User: What shape does this take?
Amino acid sequence: MKKVLSIVETGYRATLEEQDDTVVWFSHALKGAGAEMTLLLRGNAVNYAVKRQDASGLSFGARKQTRPPKLHEDLAALAKKGVAILAVQEDVGHYGLKRDDLIAEIELVPKNRVALLMDEHERIWWW
Assistant: This one.
């Protein structure tokens, strides 16, 4: 199987309908099937790695999310399966986050390294 770099740039996709992000869930499934994967967070998706987030009480009008996403826990579990979890360092700073705000399993990479990461993988999926 080819090495896959999965880049998540649009955060919070389907988190009202589901209790997780579809791309992170898909990455768990693919790793379970034997894929060699790296997950890179960019843009507002870097917020997935914030360790003290709590989306309980999330609602949109009368629609309440009864099983709120726990994206930081999903990422930590994915890292425990052997998937490298990366975030673009400049994007982390753009959102006012510091390294201490993020889960321990994440590696910060400078934006100028993204092209090199793409070179190191046979498949690039940009979400």
Notes: The CA atoms of residues 13 and 92 lie 19 Å apart. The mean pLDDT is 90. The first strand starts at residue 3 and ends at 8. The chain is about 25% helix and 25% strand.
